[in-house]
Amino acid sequence: MNYVKNELTGPRVFVAVNDNKKGKIHLTGGYAKPKMNKSMCGTKLNMKTIVDARDIAPREEYRHAHRWCKRCLAMLDFEGLDQKVLFSAIEFSAGTYGQLVVAHHISRNKPKLKLTSAPDKSQWRTVGSD
After folding, report:
1. Beta bridge partners of 92
2. Model-level pTM?
3. Would you place residue 130 in the very low, low, confident or very high pLDDT band (cuts 50, 70, 90)?
4. What range does the domain containing 54 cover?
5. Which of 24, 68, 105, 118 has the largest CB neighbor count within 10 A?
6. How many beta carbons lie within 10 A of that of residue 50, not counting itself?
7. Count of structural domains, the chain
8. Is residue 56 part of a domain?
């Protein structure tokens, strides 16, 4: 697989939450695991519920870093900036994920963001008028 660093948008990343509310929260989807059969770190996802990251990551009860798999969070480095921002509220002892990763991603001394090409017109999500 070809990882592209510093991309602005990319495929959606999902969160795999244990059904028994114990264990680490893993990530799946994105460039790393588009089929979502395993987590980004390689862990099998049996007995886990796959949830949209927008519903889990920015919420207060999921901000503590000890709940998240650090290897999966490290694999976010190869995902688009729009997916990294979702996890920016996770708090580590050195700072939040946003301070440690996202801020460096958009600093001035980095290469230009690589914009993905626009989807075909047949793939546009249009809003119908009433």
Report:
1. 95
2. 0.74
3. very low
4. 13-108
5. 68
6. 14
7. 1
8. yes
